[in-house]
Amino acid sequence: PYGTIADCTVLGGAVSQITKRIQIGTSVIVPIFSHPVRVAEQVAMLDQLSEGRFIFGVGGGWNEEEMANHGTAFATRFKLMRERIQAMKQIWTQSTAAFDGEFVKFEPMMQWPKPIQKPYPPIVVGGAFPHAARRAIAYGDGWIPIGGRELDPLEVLPQFRQMAKDAGR
C-alpha cells in the first residue's frame, strides 16, 4: 500500500551493501518534496555506496494535497522538478555550484562526495505518455512509463523513440 513504502534512499543504501552487481534505482523520487541540495547529496551518496550502480528515478507526483503540505503549487510542479534536476546536475558536476532559477536559488556552495558515475547517475523520468516522455527527452536519460492506464507503454514505445530521435537524443 502507498502509505507503507519505505524511504528509497535508506533502502537503496542497505541493498547496495548486500549486492555487488545489480543496479539499484528508485522507481520515482519526487524531487519537488525536498530541497535539491539535500537530494543531490543523497543521490551522490547512493552512487558512492553502490560503487556506481545507482539509477535516479524521478517523477512530478500526482497528489495535490500532499504537494500543498510540502509547499509546492500543483500547477507548477513540473517546472519546479525540472529546475531542481538542473540544479542537482550543477551540484554533481561543478566543484562550486550555484543556481539562480525561477524556483530554485542558492549561492555558490560545495558538496561532496560527487557521484562515481560521470557526469552523474542516469536520470529516468517516470510518468504517462506523452508528457512524461517529453520531459524524459528534455532533461532525463530514460523514461519509466506508467502501465495500466489508457495507453500500453509497449504500444507507444516506437513513438517515444521517434520523439527522442527528432530531439537529437
Describe this structure in words.
- With 169 residues, the chain is of the alpha/beta class.
- It contains six helices and six strands.
- It has helices at residues 8-18, 36-49, 64-69, 77-93, 131-139, 153-166; strands at residues 24-25, 54-58, 97-100, 105-109, 123-127, 142-145.
- It has a four-stranded parallel beta sheet. A two-stranded antiparallel sheet has the order 3-4.
- Strand 3 and strand 4 form a beta hairpin.
- Helix 2 (36-49) crosses helix 4.
- The longest helix is centred in the middle third of the chain and has 17 residues, at 77-93.
- The radius of gyration is 16 Å and the shape is globular.
- The N and C termini lie far apart (36 Å).
- The mean pLDDT is 91.
Structural topology:
Elements: H1 8-18, E1 24-25, H2 36-49, E2 54-58, H3 64-69, H4 77-93, E3 97-100, E4 105-109, E5 123-127, H5 131-139, E6 142-145, H6 153-166
Helix pairs in contact: 1-2, 2-4
Please tally the β strands and state the result. 6
Q: Largest beta sheet: what is the strand line-up?
A: 1-2-5-6
The share of residues in extended strands comes to 5-15%
How many helix segments? 6
What letter string, H or E per element, gives the SSE order? HEHEHHEEEHEH
Structural class: alpha/beta
Gyration radius over CA:
16 Å
| Helical content band | 40-55%
Low-pLDDT ranges: none
Residue-averaged pLDDT: 91
Amino- and carboxy-terminal Cα gap: 36 Å
Q: Could you describe the largest sheet, including whether it forms a barrel?
A: 4 strands, parallel
Shape: globular
